From TrEMBL:
Sorted UniProt keywords: Transferase
The keyword Iron appears for this protein: no
Ranges for region Disordered: 255-338
Gene3D superfamilies associated with the record: Spore Coat Polysaccharide Biosynthesis Protein SpsA, Chain A
Lineage, broadest ranks: Bacteria, Bacillati, Actinomycetota, Actinomycetes, Micromonosporales
The protein's name in its UniProt record: Glycosyl transferase family 2
Span of domain Glycosyltransferase 2-like: 20-173
The organism of origin for this protein: Pseudosporangium ferrugineum
GO terms of molecular function: transferase activity
Pfam families, A to Z: Glycos_transf_2 (PF00535)
Amino acid sequence: MPPSSRRPVPTHAASSPTVTVVIPALNEEDNLPLVLENLPPVDEVVVVDGRSDDDTVAVAREVRPDVVVVRQTRSGKGNALACGFAAATGDIVVTVNADGSADPQEIPRFVDALLSGAEAAHGSRFRYGGDHRDALPAERLGHAVLSRLVNLLFRTRFTDLSCGYNAYWRELLPVLGLPGPEVPGLRRGRLAWGDGPESETLITIRMATRGLRVVEVATIGYPRIHGDRPRRLLPAALRVLRTVVTEYARRWRRPPSRPALPPAFPPAAPSASPSPSSSPPPSPSAESGRHAARHSVAPPPRTRRRPDLRVIRGEGRDERWDGPSQYRAVPGENYRPY
């Protein structure tokens, strides 16, 4: 089911949406093949290379010949995501890490959340049905405290601020206000706000404060398949806190608005959609590839209230939603009847 009629109807309203997977990668020649092999059927895969020193690009093209490889224009994960969003052509854009810390077989659950009425699906490793299997007790405590702070300041209900596993309707990506691949006037070698490691928390906050219908989807976080994850707990906590304070101050200085579609995100051309008789994508619990042997985890059982989904933002129910009651979303703070 397409998003609510309170926004302009996307081009996919009368057909099955196409899905693009964006994977930022930096020196991930050992992990990236396992991620690519375990992807469910999707329409497009975009690998954003962060100027890797190893054979990340060559390995990606060897494993998946149809992959679209782009090189990010600056440094930082935020810039990598912006470059991937600019290159994506699908109706739905899903972001997945290249280090194997997330199971790509969960992608259909994120797409299902969007088809059920959400405008953004945010992964959470700390809610019912999810787990962060690579988190220390101090990390869990830090996530809980910072999530509570954000929820108090922005009146949200997030349980995970820094999960990179997300899905969006592509036509709504400009609402996030991320710096584009090219920023006029930015000195060479400098980063724009949102380019660096603050991007994950920034995107999470803006998904709600910019008025999007956000739903949390339970996901499993795993250790890196190869290599060790740097554990700089105090710098990471301070970075999240700085992002929260900065976004809170910006919110009061300049109320969020809905920008028009910039040239970096042109509307996707209508494409031939598969017939209704086409076979659906495999179940998230189905095992495939070397990655699945270690990382494929069955999703939580689908009860009537869908505990793996949670509406994050809004003050009251949208009574015009005609879908199933367990998927009923709530309008965000910038709710406007179109």
